Amino acid sequence: MRIAVCDDDLREQKQFDEALQEWDPTQNAEKFFSGEALLKAARNLPHFDIVFLDIYMPGENGVDIAGKLRAVSPETGIAFVTTSPEHAVEAFSLRALHYLVKPVTAEDIDETFQRLQILYAKQASSPVRERLSFAVGPERYTVFLDQICLLENENHAVNVSLSDGRRLKVWMTFHELEQKLDGSFLKINRGIIVNMDYIIQIGPEFCILRNGNQLPIAIRQSTAIRAAYDDYVFDRLARHRDDE
């Protein structure tokens, strides 16, 4: 198991280490004094199973770091550690496992790992979510395919729009990225691919997404495009009825 603790205070790191050893002497945590160092290490495989992340660090906000960590490694469990419950609501909006108030105890760590095991069990019983990894400048991101709403070609790069509002510029050819997609994606025009799960309306000339984006459809292929979307919707409804 790969465990990390990120805290700018050496005393707090040592205190956490003592609690971790009390909980399980066979476990060790990789230690980081900044979010930047943590994110750099998080790109290495295998990804962290769990990260204990301090919210208050000089010049850094742990909630912001957690958001970036989610992009690099969506499956990593995150437990926030702080002296105040002020950011608890914001923390849990990032699907945090736990929100711990210092000093962290062996009991806190035990409860956090119990929550991690529950999360693993839920993931095992759920359909597998396909993931996609790509470079965005010097960073490397991993996202779930079902988070991607729209892909638009731009010269030698692709603009990838995500469901949380982020827009990533991926330095990969449009064709290369297209090959990594599954059957929920539809090419509606030259250099435009949409995730059909995010379409709310499709007509002979335009496609409208949930976020209000209105995208042009290739006129000559509009009949085939609308037919492909209708087939996808009917198949999805059929699968839903079979699951009931």
Detailed description of the structure:
There is one protein chain. With 244 residues, the chain is of the alpha/beta class. The protein folds into 2 domains: 123 residues, Response regulator (Rossmann fold), CATH 3.40.50.2300; 113 residues, OB fold (Dihydrolipoamide Acetyltransferase, E2P) (Beta Barrel), CATH 2.40.50. Helix content is 35%, strand content 31%. The protein has 7 helices and 17 strands. The chain has a 5-stranded parallel β-sheet with strand order 2-1-3-6-7, with helices on both faces. The protein has a 5-stranded antiparallel β-sheet with strand order 12-11-10-14-13. β16 and β17 form a beta hairpin. α1 crosses α5 and α2 packs parallel to α3. The two termini are 37 Å apart. The model has no long low-confidence stretch (mean pLDDT 86).
- Count the strands? 17
- Give the CATH architecture of the largest domain: 3-Layer(aba) Sandwich
* Separation, N- and C-terminal Cα atoms: 37 Å
Number of H- or I-type helical stretches: 7
In CATH, the homologous superfamily of the largest domain goes by the name Response regulator
The CATH class name of the largest domain reads Alpha Beta
The Rg value, from CA coordinates, equals: 21 Å
Q: How would you spell out the order of helices and strands?
A: EHEHEEEHEHEHEEEEEHEEEEEH
Main features:
single chain; 244 residues; alpha/beta; Rossmann fold; OB fold (Dihydrolipoamide Acetyltransferase, E2P); 2 domains; 5-stranded parallel sheet; 5-stranded antiparallel sheet
